[in-house]
Amino acid sequence: MPDPILQISGLDAHYGDFQALFGVDLDVAEGEVLAIIGANGAGKTTLLRSISGLTQNAPDMIQYRRAPIGGLRADEVANLGIALVPEGRQLFPSLSVEENLIIGGQIGRKGPWSLQAVYDLFPILKERRAQQSTSLSGGQQQMVAIGRALMANPDLILFDEISLGLAPIIIKDIYDALPGIIGEGMSALIVEQDISKALSVSSRFYCLQEGRVSLCGASATVAREDISRAYFGVA
Amino acid sequence: MEWVNAIVQGTLLGGLYALFAAGLSLIFGVMRLVNIAHGDFIVLGAYLGLSVTTILGIHPLVALVFVVPCMAMIGYILQRGILNQTLGGDLLSPLLVTFGLSVILQNALLEIYSADPQKMNAGALETASVSLGDLSLGVLPLLTFGIAVAVIAALQWTFYRTALGRAFRATSDNQEIAQLMGLNRRHIFGMAMALALAVTAIAGIMLGIRTSFDPSVGGGRLIFGFEAVIIGGLGNLWGTLAGGVILGVAQTIGAKIDPGWQLLAGHIVFLAILAVRPNGLFPRVSG
Amino acid sequence: MKHLDFHVTRSSGATKIAALLGIIIILGLIAAPWWAGRADMRLLGELFLYLALASLWNLMAGYAGLVSVGQQAYVGFGGYMLFALTIFGGLHPVAAIGVAGVLGALIAVPVALLIFRLRGAYFAIGTWVIAEVFRLSFAQVSSLGGGSGSSLPVGIVKSLSASRSGREHLSYWLALGSALIVITAVYLFLRSRNGLALTAIRDNELAAGSLGIDIWRTKFVVYVVTAALTAMVGALIFLQKLRISPDAAFSVNDWTAFVIFIVVIGGIGTIEGPILGTLIFFLLRETLADLGTIYLMVLGVVAIVIMLKAPNGIWGLIRSKFDLELFPLSFRVKKSHSSKGA
What we know:
Chain B is an all-alpha fold.
């Protein structure tokens, strides 16, 4: 196995007074697409918040390219080349579509992604570039959110529930586009409730249940019943 | 004709009030902070101008070259050193900390410069006027109004046309997501306060050329600026200029009726607008 | 298995001892004219009036979330009403104090309707504008001396008591009485249904609203009641000063800045905080007053440091360290029998 780009060991995380993660161990290899699945409240979003620095942790619990980053602020993590596509898209309403993309790239990392590259990927955004981002449809907003994260030219990109609240046809479009996006040598971590979608684009998966890793393995070979058990707990 | 004159003079006075208000409006827009010490910073700007003009023997307008960056630096340090710690929780903390700053600033100025009223000497500029038909317009009020328009246009441009303005708007929209874009909100807030106090420096110097000032006049300037912001509508910079003009006109017309009514008339117009249009005349954001 | 009985109570050993000590101290203070000197009594009288103002401001800011920097509006209004009612209305000064309170409540109603439209910090500056309007308006009333102010006529002063010491004793007791009344009123108010609603609002405005608490109405009641009591305290303050002017009556430093510092330093959102804060404030003032402006700067720095490092003030520090509460407001769960437990 190649060197891990991200290594999480014994991560405990709290959400207010509530402990959301208990000793989670996880690693992402360089260039790998990893899926995180699990029911609502399993701790998936907390995991992504911890990695991206929105929630602070003990420095050593999260290592990026062997450097401890658990204690860094979100802006410091972003500058290291980790980008998050947040749940619910969370575009900036007072910025136009193009400005949302530009601000995604403002940390100035070199790489294949530019305004033009994002417009090539999602041509509709070029047509809508001057509009307020809130005037777009849900699917188009998701494209902006993905484009905004790509503009940072990250080495590791985190997707949080990108299918949430979108029509099935749009979800299909976006998942069809994903391999082309991630194929550029980027590593990715995909959090998703839709298990089959998550498994179809990933090489390995982790299943979270009540804040703990309940199952992990190769996405292609895992048995459905194993997943159901890990997902919902023992019936 | 006297009334037309009052309205014109009031409009020009409104330029000064818009300068008082612009910094207040800016920091509220970016970080929802209301700086109770804002008026005292205007007075600080005036005193810094006074010191620079007396020490270097230069014209007050030239003193801007020194005072503006100096105030901007104070703003950045103040924000990163103290005010950032007050943000994020309830509103009590920023309110009371800036209130404490106001008292400290006022008494520090009192200690250094004494309570005697001071004024900056701008030479011929103070008395120069141009005639427009029957109206005689002071060059200084005209200049002040022109500067106010230029400052607001520059702020507007910064907000909507520059990377810094984009960062201001993004941070104002959603601090967490802005952090994910690699923006350090502490720094962004520091920059916003630096910009606000830079504008405040201009306001202070224009104030100090126009009238005499002493350490206790800050509260009144805060109130005028605040009234201009509310009349114009939160988050709308051109609205703030309009608010300043309305306040200025109300004051000069009030003074025309009875000299004792100048300030009262301004406050009454403000309260009337608050009663009829609680979001101001040209609202943009709710807040 | 051993069965344990629990019961819920507000009082604790500390509150009972505090109540007893409080009664002894109050009796001693009532008797002050027989043991204290003239200067001490003046100082104590002033201390009680500040204690009353601080407790009232604390009720608004610390419990109702109404941060006002314009309470000088009601201090000055009360003072001017005392002068107007006694000079033109022929009222006895003590009666005038009561009427000043009623008028304060009446004027607070339209004021609240207006400034409640402003949120948060803008509400604070709005209250300041109101105070300015009051100041400028009273400066226009020439029969009360206009901008330069006026003195209380000798006849009215004499109507309090013929002798100087009689007047001094009376005004001392009035000041002590006002502090006691205000603290008792705040305490009873906080124990009432409205008070519980206030605490709920402070803790979570959204949740309180969804629980059916009428937030606007509760805040409105607090604002008006506070205005009435502040006006009465204001009337008392200027009964002691015997002279009033717009600048003194509506001074933001004297009636708001000091009061805010007292509450912040003592501990906002507690009944004990303003009491402790007033004591500290007067202690500092009596020892550092010679420093003049430096003293005010020190006060400002202390307030900022406390706001940043210990937002619950000095009383908050004491309370968290010793789990102490002198005024029984919060409920505690206790074991009925002092059995050997944890």
